[in-house]
Amino acid sequence: LGSHTARLLIVRVKDDFETMVPLVRERSYVQLAGDFDPVRKRISKEGSARTIAVMKDFSRTIKDWRVKRVVGVATGVIRAAANSDEFLRRIFEASGLRISAISGETEALLSGKGALCALGIKEPPFFVFDLGGGTTEFLCHGEDGLAVKSVSLGTMALTKAFLPSDPPTDTEMKALTEHIDQTLEQECPSFPANGPVIGTGGTITALCAMHNGILLEAIAPERINGLKLTLFQIELCLNKMRCLTIAQRMEYLGLDSGRAQVMVAGAAVAAEILRHSSASELVVSMSDLLEGALMDFFEGEQHG
């Protein structure tokens, strides 16, 4: 359960407790960062109602598939919210789903675990970033060891703060880019030489699908994982999208409404991360926090 999107993954786990066979993937836009109060730090009543409706749907799917174990994690604005406990309690009372807010550092570790495993990367150096609706998480392992960081660069939060116009103006885009650059300069871990840059998150997946002509309904890890996006390709997509309204992005680019809203800010973050790390391309992984959280759970089961 994230700042912008709620996602559900149901898997069958084989006897080795390591091999997971995906059975169901669902997602819905809860858009919690869109009406989150950054001063009072409260999730709105409207956001809470949207999320509870989605969680009820997920709960029905979970029951239909006779799921034996449920692992639920919350990220982004939820962990920052003053009413987080009340919000998660209401979800449990309405849906029966027990969800725990995790730290940004834990999110970075679990997202990295899911992505690295999917790509078959077992040794450093590597640089993984997970671009979400409220925050971006970094997992970096180079000569100086492991660095884990959660940074306030999220697609929905940035869209709300910097891009009120539809389409955004040049002045808005300049202010957005300057803010991203300044934040990365101050907070982003240093990039390890000779290591791959790995990008995860809905925006990265959507950019990859757009560039490769993959339809929304055909997006799946087996089609996405391991594909590459160059900085040039991301900039081409960004320059195309920033001139279009949200409705035009949906009509011409095949994006759904929830993703079309935040794609400009998301592509800008992805481009600036590559520039900041002096990298010319990134490797895409659709596998991330969902897979990483399950892997971590089953490892605990084995050793518990």
Order of helices and strands: EEHEHHEHEEEHHEHHEHHHEH
Q: Which range does the strand content fall in?
A: 15-25%
With strands numbered from the N-terminus, the spatial order across the biggest sheet is 7-6-5-8-10-9
How many helices does DSSP assign?
12
| Rounded average pLDDT | 94
The chain-level structural class is alpha/beta
- Helix proportion of residues, in percent? 40-55%
- Termini separation (Å)? 26 Å
Which shape, going by the Cα principal axes?
globular
Low-confidence stretches: none
What's the total count of β strands? 10
For the sheet with most strands, the description reads: 6 strands, mixed
Report the C-alpha radius of gyration, rounded. Answer: 18 Å
Description:
The chain has 304 residues and is of the alpha/beta class. 48% of the residues lie in helices and 18% in strands. The chain has twelve helices and ten strands. Strands 7-6-5-8-10-9 form a six-stranded mixed β-sheet. It has a two-stranded antiparallel sheet with strand order 1-2. A hairpin with a 6-residue loop joins β1 (5-13) and β2 (20-29). α7 (202-212) crosses α11 (257-276). The radius of gyration is 18 Å and the shape is globular.
Short account of what is shown:
It contains twelve helices and ten strands. It has 304 residues and is an alpha/beta fold.
